[in-house]
C-alpha cells in the first residue's frame, strides 16, 4: 500500500493517489485540473488508474475527474446527493471499494456541503487513514456557507453548520486515534479560516488541538464556526456547477486560447489581466488593465475580480508567463473566457509613484482605501479614516470611493494593493489620481 499526496500550492489543495502495490491499481481522490501528474505517477509504478473519488463538488478549483475517467476508463465514485451529470457510481454511507488488501469505506459527512463524504481506508482490516475532503482540516473544519446558491442541494449556512457538528463529533471523532487525517486543503485556502500548514495529522492529535473537535454544545460550535468566515470569491458557485458537469480536457482547452506576440485589436470594455511585476506595470501599461501578478493567490483574485463567464484578456512579459497564466486560469475553469493572450512590455499609461513621506505627514489630504479582508481590518486598522473594502468586493463598490482627493490604496504587503489600485485606475474617471502604497505599508 502506498499513499501519495499531491499539492497545488497556489490553491492550497491536496489530492491523493492510493496505490495497491500487489494489484498495480490506483484510486485518486480529488484530483486537480491538470491530470498529468497522476498519469506520471501511474506510469512510474506501472499501475492503472481504476477509480476517482470526489469528496464533493469543489468550489475553489476544477477537478479533472471526468477527463481522467474518459482517458483511462476509471470509475468515478461520488455521493448520489451530488446530482452529478457525468457517468458515476454512487459512493455513500457504508459502501465499499476493494483495492488489493485495502477497503475504502464511504462516510457521509455533510456540513461543508450537503453532499460531502469522507473516505476511511482500512488495510487488512485495520483503520489506517481517512481522507476528509473539506470536512475536517488540520486545525479547523470546512466552512458551511458555500452552498446557499449552488449545487443540486442548497441549504442555509445554519443548517450546514449544524450538520457539520454531527459529522465531526459523531463520525470522524469516533475513528481510532492513530488514523491518519489527509485533508483536501491546507493553510491559505478560503474553504476554512484557521488551517494549519501541516499536510497531515491524526484523529488523536486533532481531538487534542483542533477547536472543532473539542467538547461543546451544538450551539457553541455553530456560533464559532459561522463567525469571521472569509469572503466568498465570485467564481465559487461557478466551479461547483462545473464540477457537477465535468470540465473539458485540460490540455486541449488551454491550447484553444488565441495567442499573439503583439498586442491584438482590443475591445475597449474588456479587462486586461496584466501579470507582469508591479514595477514594470507601473512604468507602462495598457488602458483598462489590472495588475494581477503571478503570486500564490493569482487564481483566487482572478476569480474574485473577473465574474464567471465574463470575457477578459491575459497579458504577460513572455510566452512562458502567458502559458502559466492560462494554465492557472484553467485551474478554476476560466480559460474559456480568455478572449486573447498576448505579450506586452509597456503601454501608453504610467502609474504615478506616491511620495510616502508627504503622505505620512499629511494623510488627511488623501482618500485611503484599505483592501485587506474584513478579519484583518478587525484585528488592526492601519489608518483611522480609511475606507475598508476587501479586494474581492472592490469592483462592485467603486462608487463608494470619492475621487475628489488623491486616492492611496493599501493592503498588508503590496500584492493586493497593486491589483486594487490598477483596478480603480481602470474604472474611475480619467482625472482621478490613484496611488499604490505598496510594501511601504509595512512601515506604518
- Span between N and C termini? 53 Å
Mean pLDDT: 95
Quaternary organisation of the protein chains: single chain
The CATH topology of the largest domain is what? Answer: Metallo-beta-lactamase, Chain A
Spans of at least 5 consecutive residues with low confidence: none
- Report the CATH superfamily of the largest domain: Ribonuclease Z/Hydroxyacylglutathione hydrolase-like
CATH class of the largest domain: Alpha Beta
Instruction: Determine the fraction of residues in helical runs and give it as a percent range.
Output: 25-40%
Strand content bin = 15-25%
Give a short account of the largest sheet: 6 strands, mixed
Q: How many structural domains are formed by the residues?
A: 3
Domain Rhodanese: 266-305, 362-443
Enzyme class: hydrolase
GO molecular function: hydroxyacylglutathione hydrolase activity
Protein name: Hydroxyacylglutathione hydrolase
Fill in the keyword field for this structure:
alpha/beta; Oxidized Rhodanese, domain 1; 3 domains; six-stranded mixed β-sheet; 21 strands; Metallo-B-lactamas; EC 3.1.2.6
Amino acid at each position: 500500500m502506498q499513499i501519495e499526496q499531491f499539492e497545488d500550492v497556489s490553491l492550497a489543495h491536496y489530492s491523493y493517489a492510493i496505490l495497491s502495490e500487489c494489484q498495480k491499481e490506483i484510486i485518486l481522490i480529488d484530483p486537480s485540473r491538470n491530470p498529468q501528474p497522476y498519469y506520471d505517477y501511474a506510469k512510474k509504478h506501472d499501475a492503472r488508474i481504476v477509480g476517482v473519488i470526489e469528496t464533493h463538488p469543489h468550489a475553489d478549483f476544477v477537478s479533472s475527474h471526468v477527463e481522467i475517467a474518459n482517458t483511462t476508463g476509471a470509475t468515478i465514485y461520488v455521493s448520489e446527493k451530488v446530482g452529478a451529470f457525468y457517468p458515476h457510481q454512487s459512493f455513500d454511507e457504508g459502501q465499499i471499494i476493494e483495492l488489493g488488501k485495502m477497503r475504502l469505506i464511504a462516510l457521509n459527512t455533510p456540513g461543508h456541503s450537503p453532499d460531502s463524504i469522507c473516505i476511511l481506508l482500512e488495510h487488512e482490516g485495520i483503520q489506517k487513514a481517512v481522507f476528509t475532503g473539506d470536512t475536517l482540516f488540520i486545525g479547523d473544519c470546512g466552512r458551511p456557507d458555500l452552498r446557499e446558491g449552488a449545487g443540486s442541494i442548497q441549504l442555509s449556512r445554519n443548517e450546514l453548520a449544524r450538520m457539520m457538528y454531527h459529522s465531526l463529533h459523531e463520525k470522524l471523532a469516533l475513528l481510532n486515534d492513530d488514523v491518519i487525517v489527509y485533508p483536501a486543503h491546507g493553510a491559505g485556502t478560503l474553504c476554512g479560516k484557521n488551517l494549519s500548514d501541516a499536510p497531515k495529522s491524526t484523529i488523536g492529535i486533532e481531538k487534542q488541538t483542533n477547536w472543532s473537535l473539542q467538547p461543546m454544545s451544538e450551539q457553541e460550535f455553530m456560533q464559532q464556526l459561522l463567525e469571521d468566515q472569509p469572503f466568498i470569491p465570485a467564481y465559487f458557485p461557478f466551479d461547483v456547477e462545473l464540477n457537477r458537469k465535468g470540465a473539458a480536457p485540460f490540455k486541449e482547452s488551454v491550447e484553444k486560447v488565441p495567442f499573439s506576440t503583439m498586442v491584438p485589436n482590443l475591445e475597449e470594455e474588456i479587462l486586461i489581466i496584466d501579470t507582469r511585476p508591479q514595477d514594470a506595470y507601473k512604468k507602462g501599461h495598457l488602458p483598462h488593465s489590472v495588475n494581477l501578478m503571478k503570486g500564490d493567490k493569482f487564481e483566487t483574485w482572478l476569480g474574485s475580480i473577473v465574474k464567471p463567464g465574463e470575457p477578459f484578456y491575459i497579458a504577460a512579459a513572455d510566452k512562458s508567463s502567458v502559458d502559466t497564466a492560462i494554465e492557472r486560469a484553467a485551474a478554476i475553469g476560466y480559460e474559456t473566457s480568455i478572449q486573447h493572450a498576448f505579450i506586452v512590455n509597456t503601454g501608453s499609461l504610467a502609474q504615478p509613484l506616491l511620495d510616502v513621506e508627504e503622505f505620512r505627514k499629511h494623510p488627511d489630504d488623501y482618500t485611503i482605501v484599505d483592501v485587506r479582508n474584513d478579519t484583518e481590518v478587525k484585528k488592526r486598522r492601519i489608518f483611522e479614516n480609511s475606507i475598508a473594502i476587501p479586494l474581492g468586493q472592490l469592483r462592485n463598490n467603486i462608487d463608494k470611493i470619492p475621487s475628489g482627493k488623491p486616492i492611496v490604496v493599501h493592503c498588508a504587503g503590496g500584492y493586493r494593493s497593486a491589483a486594487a489600485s490598477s483596478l480603480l485606475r481602470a474604472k474611475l474617471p480619467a482625472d482621478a489620481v490613484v496611488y499604490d502604497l505598496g510594501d511601504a505599508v509595512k512601515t506604518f
